[in-house]
Design a protein that fits this description.
about 260 residues; alpha+beta; Glutamine Phosphoribosylpyrophosphate, subunit 1, domain 1; 6-stranded antiparallel sheet; 4 helices
Length: about 260
C-alpha cells in the first residue's frame, strides 16, 4: 500500500528533513513507485507539487528538497497504485475548497468497488477510490454544518463518516484545512510530538541526522505523522487501529473515537 506523511505545528516549520527520508521510500528503500505528491500551506494558500515518477528519483522531488518549506500543516504521499491508473489526476494529495478554505487529503489502503453516490458539489477528477472517499468526507461536513464549526464539532462527523467508508476496505488517511489535521489509522500509522528540550534525530532511510535545538525555540511544538517511523532514535507512538486523532498546534486535541479495525 501507499505511504503517508503529515506535519502539524504551532509555528511554521521546515519539512525538508522528514521529506528527505520519506521520499526515499518511493522506489529506493521501499516499493512505492507510482507517483508522489506534497501539499503545504502558506497562510490560507496551499502549494502542491506532484509527479508520476518515483519520488526517490523524481526531479520535482529534488526541487522540493531544496525549497525551504516552512508551514503549519503539510501532507505528503507516495503511491503504490491499486485502484486507478498511474497518472497525475490520480496522484495524492487531493485538494478541494470548503467554507472558503483549502482542504487537503491523502489515503493509504484499498476500497475496492467503492462507488458512493455523490449528491453534492464535490466530484472526483480522477478514478481512485481515495478521491471518492475524500469527496464523501467533505460532503458529510458540508451537509452537517452550513458554516465552519468548532474542531470539537467537526471531529465526530469526520470520524463517523470515516468509519462508514472503512466498511468497504482499508482506510488510513490524513486530512487538513491548514489548521487542523485528522489522522485515521486502519493498519499502520505512527506519530511523534517534538518539543522542548529538542534532541538529535537520525533518519531511518538515509544516513542523515539533525540537531533540532539549532532550528527551534523552547516554545516550538511539531507533530509528525507517518505510516512508518521516519527516525531510528526517537520514540514514535503507534495509533491504535480504527482510531482517529485530531491534531492542532502540534498536539493531539481529540483522540476519543475508536472503531473496530478495518477489514
Amino acid at each position: 500500500m501507499c505511504q503517508l506523511l503529515g506535519m502539524n505545528c504551532n509555528v511554521p516549520t521546515d519539512i525538508c528533513f522528514s521529506f528527505e527520508g520519506f521520499s526515499r521510500r518511493g522506489g529506493e528503500t521501499d516499493e512505492h513507485k507510482d507517483g508522489w505528491g506534497i501539499s503545504f500551506f502558506e497562510g490560507k494558500g496551499c502549494r502542491t507539487f506532484m509527479d508520476v515518477e518515483p519520488s526517490a528519483s523524481s526531479v520535482v522531488a529534488e526541487l522540493v528538497k531544496n525549497y525551504s518549506i516552512k508551514s503549519l500543516n503539510v501532507i505528503a504521499h507516495i503511491r503504490k497504485a491499486s485502484v486507478g491508473s498511474v497518472c497525475l489526476e490520480n496522484t495524492h494529495p487531493f485538494t478541494r475548497e470548503l467554507w472558503g478554505e483549502n482542504w487537503v487529503f491523502a489515503h493509504n489502503g484499498d476500497l475496492f468497488g467503492y462507488d458512493p453516490v455523490l449528491s453534492g458539489r464535490f466530484k472526483p477528477v480522477g478514478t481512485t477510490d481515495s478521491e471518492r472517499a475524500f469527496c464523501v468526507l467533505l460532503e458529510a461536513l458540508e451537509r452537517s454544518f452550513a458554516e465552519k464549526p468548532s474542531p470539537q464539532a467537526m471531529y465526530p462527523v469526520v470520524c463517523e463518516t470515516a468509519h462508514q467508508v472503512a466498511e468497504g476496505g482499508t482506510f488510513n488517511f490524513l486530512l487538513t484545512n491548514g489548521d487542523l489535521m485528522f489522522a485515521r489509522c486502519a493498519t499502520d500509522l505512527h506519530y511523534i510530538v517534538r518539543e522542548h528540550p529538542f534532541s538529535v534525530a537520525q533518519l531511518k532511510d538515509l544516513d542523515m541526522t539533525i540537531d533540532f535545538q539549532e532550528y527551534t525555540t523552547p516554545d516550538d511544538r511539531v507533530a509528525v505523522i507517518a505510516t512508518q517511523p521516519l527516525t531510528i532514535n526517537e520514540s514514535w507512538t503507534r495509533i491504535d487501529k480504527g482510531c482517529c486523532l485530531l491534531f492542532q498546534g502540534g498536539e493531539v486535541i481529540s483522540d476519543g473515537f475508536c472503531s473496530l479495525p478495518d477489514s
